[in-house]
Amino acid sequence: MPRAIGHQRQHRLFFRDDHGSGLAGGGGGLARAIPAVVPAKLGHRLAGLDLVPDLGADIGSPTWFRGAATCAALCAATWMLAPSVDQPILGIAPAPLSGKAEQAQQAQAIAPLASGSRTGIHAAPTRLVQPLGDTPERPIIEHEAKLGSGTMLRSVLQRSGVGEADAGIAARLVADAMPLGSIQRNTLLEMTLGRRPDKSQPRPLERLAFRAAFDRRIEITRTGAALAIKSIPIAIDRTPLRVQGLIGSSLYRSARAAGAPAKAVEAFLRTVSSRVPVSRLGASCKFDLILGQARAATGEVQYGQLMYAGVTGCANGIKLAPWESGGKTEWFDAGGTGGKTGMMTMPVNGRFSSAFGMRTHPILGFNRMHKGIDIAAPYGSPVYAAVDGVVRVAGRSAGYGNLVRIDHGSGFGTGYAHLSKILVRPGQSVRKGQQIARSGNSGLSTGPHLHFETTRNGAAVNPRGVSFVSVRRLTGGALGAFQARLRSLMAVPVGHGAQPEDAE
Ligand SMILES: [Zn+2]
């Protein structure tokens, strides 16, 4: 009985002890519990035995060796009981999917496309969705394509799905009606492709329509097996566009706001400014311009040339219209006066060093007529033609050195002397401001300069007194015809131009 009581007591002790802290505290608890499972006599002997001695203390003592051996034995037992590294620990894995379940799983799964995944590409058939054996076709296809250039018509049709035969016929029909090359770039082709017997065949061309020209539309339609072409003219209204308004603070802006296209306003400004400085036109002046215009019945508008430029309602008023006379189109005012032409330009950049007239020659030493003016310029400076003309002389000429003479018509001429290099040849036409030579010091010259002469009927005249300005005048029948033209222009009604598409 006392044993039983002791046994119970020991049990109570074991349970009352905290297991974790007992181990951590050197196994005191466990050591005290051991006697409970051994006979009382042995338990008495083992009561003082520490099964888990602290290996950090009493190193080398029998107790320590016993503890080390216990530790080694435990490690060895653990090592022997553990599974090896290369042997997997078997667990329960689900069986691989197959059939519809696999398809459904793949359709919803995420996997790299590079690994052949069909994620999101194809829905797996389900009870509600069944794959179709054949897809239905649209009965007709309406299609638009842009034509790079007319000669590409056939290939553009073929690229748009028209069969080779139909595309060939259509291109030939159009080519018979008009030169393919005359079709504007980027023309929009409208086409209708019809039903085909089966998918191996191209769809037949049912209709092809496009704007072949500003005043023409072409339609190709199918009747039965044949394609027929129809050329439909588009009505064009060629009434010129007339725009008027107050100049206000800016002629350009006012004209643009009134509906004149930008190019027409620029041409108007160029034309008017050749007669009257635009800055001198007051805000209360009225501008009046007429330009060619073609309006298609379908709404498109094309603008043409400026036909009239006028400023009215103030002191500097002017009325100008172009008129062809002598093979040249020029702007004339109401009185038949053309623009000034032929203003001289400086033949070389430099300063005047010697004037026209009698002087003591710097080299010859005696009084002699100086038949031109001298302009001092660095050696090799570009020499320009002073006025439009034809080169008459280009070469060496005694005291002049290298000389160029240009004929300007009406008995007028210019000469350029002491040149270092001549860049034109006799008979060549030159424009005002065109470089004809390089200045120099050739001939009787004391330093680099250009000797510039003007001649009238071969005789030298003072360039100061020469005006090359020529004004063309219309007279007689030409003047009458021009004024009749001006009157007809004045009858053009003031129209409302299209809204400026690129207004500021
Ligand atoms: Zn000179």
Structure description:
This protein is α+β, with helices and mostly antiparallel strands and 504 residues long. The protein has helices at 2-16, 19-24, 28-33, 40-46, 62-81, 99-108, 153-159, 164-177, 251-257, 262-273, 476-490; strands at residues 141-147, 187-193, 205-213, 216-223, 226-233, 236-237, 241-246, 286-296, 301-312, 318-325, 328-333, 337-341, 351-354, 357-360, 367-370, 373-376, 382-384, 389-396, 402-409, 412-422, 429-430, 435-439, 449-456, 459-461, 470-473. A hairpin with a 2-residue loop joins strand 19 (402-409) and strand 20 (412-422). Helix 7 (153-159) runs antiparallel to helix 8 (164-177) and helix 9 packs antiparallel against helix 10. Bound molecules: zinc ion. Residues 354, 370, 372, 374, 451 line the site of zinc ion.
Contiguous runs where pLDDT drops below 50 for at least 5 residues: 1-38, 497-504
Structural class: alpha+beta
Give the terminus-to-terminus CA distance: 119 Å
Count of helical stretches = 11
Give the overall average pLDDT: 81
Major sheet: size, sense and barrel closure? 10 strands, antiparallel
Q: What form results from the Cα inertia axes?
A: elongated
Beta-strand percentage? 25-35%
Oligomer designation: single chain
> Which distinct ligands sit in these coordinates?
zinc ion
SS elements, strand count? 25
